Amino acid sequence: MPHSPNLGESSPSYARITPGLYPVIVTVFVVMLLISNIGAVKLIEFGPIITDGGAFLFPLVYILGDVISEVYGFKAARKAIFLAFAMSALAAFTFWLVQIAPPATSWENQDAFESVLGFVPRIVLASIAGFLVGQLLNSYVLVAIKRRTKEKSLWLRLLGSTVIGELADTIIFCTIAFYGVITGGEFLTYVIIGFTYKTIVEIVLMPVTYRVIAAVKRREPSYAPVPA
């Protein structure tokens, strides 16, 4: 009797890509954090307002964190947060290795590299510490409010989680990154403006967050109530 072909033996094997938007959202979440960390190296000033380059993109990291927490829950958000934390730590370690590696004789930009990216390890330490605490609080508060409000009052859990998370993040980041570099009243102004700016951006973009969350929920066929 002829032997029937075994597809497992005669064909190459591949893992299936799980349907859903979670991997894509997490990827963008991590990349935005890494870009923000590097941008935060530069202090920028608009009149009396002093902030850092991370202000352009970092609020969007929190918005994506809200999307993940609202749609996928705290465990899924925690997984994304820890992944972003690990990649940020890897980036900091890599920049440090590149900085201490002996430069080529013909390369004359070592001082420039150190003056900019050489400051990144402190910035990343500040960022990942603030990010880890702030994002975990943000996600925890959002999910805790959702247990009470169910699918209603999305604005309440977005606003409540943002205030708690951003406040913790900003205080930790500013203290580790720039305490001693910025002193006195200027440092306090930097903290207040940083927190206020990030919170206002999230409030202004709340209608966009609403639409993104609604779109993701529609695209996720598994989105359904989870028994307590």
Per the CATH scheme, the topology name is Arp2/3 complex 21 kDa subunit ARPC3
Taking the alpha carbons of the first and last residues, their distance comes to 56 Å
SSE ordering: HHEEHHHHHHH
Main structural class: mainly alpha
CATH architecture: Orthogonal Bundle
Percent of residues in helices: over 70%
Tell me, briefly, the overall form: flat
What is the CATH top level name? Mainly Alpha
Query: If you compute it from the alpha carbons, what radius of gyration comes out, rounded to the nearest whole angstrom?
Result: 22 Å
Strand order of the largest sheet: 1-2
Average residue-wise pLDDT: 86
List the domain count as a whole number: 1
Oligomeric form: single chain
Can you offer a commentary on this structure?
- This protein is mainly α.
- The chain has one domain: Arp2/3 complex 21 kDa subunit ARPC3, CATH 1.10.1760.
- The protein has nine helices and two strands, in the order ααββααααααα.
- The protein has a two-stranded antiparallel ribbon.
- A hairpin with a 2-residue loop joins strand 1 and strand 2.
- Helix 2 runs antiparallel to helix 3, helix 2 packs across helix 4 and helix 6 runs antiparallel to helix 7.
- The chain is flat and about 60 Å long.
- The relative contact order is 0.14.
Summarize this entry quickly.
The chain has helices spanning 7-10, 22-39, 58-72, 74-100, 110-116, 120-149, 154-178, 184-204, 206-219, and strands spanning 43-46, 49-52. It is mainly alpha-helical and 228 residues long.
List the helices and strands and how they pair.
Blueprint lengths: L6 H4 L11 H18 L3 E4 L2 E4 L5 H15 L1 H27 L9 H7 L3 H30 L4 H25 L5 H21 L1 H14 L9
Helix pairs in contact: 2-3, 2-4, 3-4, 3-6, 3-8, 3-9, 4-6, 6-7, 7-8
